[in-house]
Amino acid sequence: MRRKVVSMNYPKKISIKVPASTGNVGSGFDCVGMAMDIWNEIEVSFNAQNLTIENQGIDVEKYQQISPEDNFIIQGIRAIEPDIDINKIRVINNNRIPFSIGLGSSAAALCAGLSIGNLLTDKKINEEELSTKAINIEGHPDNASPCFYGGLTISSFDQSGKRWITRKIDLPEDLNVVIFVPNFTSATRESRVQLPSKIERRDVVYNLSRVALLIDCFINKDFALLKHATQDSIHQDVRFKNFPEMKSVLNAAINAGALGAILSGSGPAIMAFSQGNEFTINYEMEESARKHNIEGNIILTRPSNKGVTIT
Fold it and tell me: N or C, fewer C-beta in 10 Å, the chain?
């Protein structure tokens, strides 16, 4: 069936920026996420002759492997404005979020597209509905929610109301994040297939107790127990089997004085939290990677309390 194409008087250009995110945050498997102060900046215009996506910034070759029609920005726009003539769309995507590394590059693109589509339609929807659409399409509430809300987000599905409930915790400005980004990627879908279909009771209790502490740490901005609160027995060790050397990078961050360290999302990036000692943590993570013949780079950043922003 041929798609109906509608030409409308859209704005000449929309500029938007969207943050990176980390899912799980250690013990908060599939429900706790955090926005990072790393941004993709996207400019969309509607006077092209053919659908065009120009990738700039980092990982250009990896982003260009995605066909324009499969691009999550385009899918997001279409999810709100299904009848738009996509052949008129030109996207300039200035990428600062590393591709397929555990920092929510797919969620960022989708949330940007949904936000752009929402600007084009007369039937505006609110942030909660946008976030729900993103989760339904992309499948990861712990990435989609922080993209829209910023901060640390807790996402829970209400079965009776058939809706996602999200709560946000603002994060302190002096909380820093040291991220080691290796030169190889990991596919979230393939990583998820390896997770066990059943979980032992002791492992459930292990994570439940720690995710409760995790939320307490961030609400009270007291990170004395963050190392304990970010520990996990559900997903991290399974995923480390795909890149076992990266666990040494995580341990190096802890030994260097990090408040806590996690596998970012499904990996393979390692994220360490700190309020000081950033350069020592940086050095020790890089040194551990060097000893295991892993090439990569460090991103020194902090969480972002802002989500998608129209610029």
Answer: N
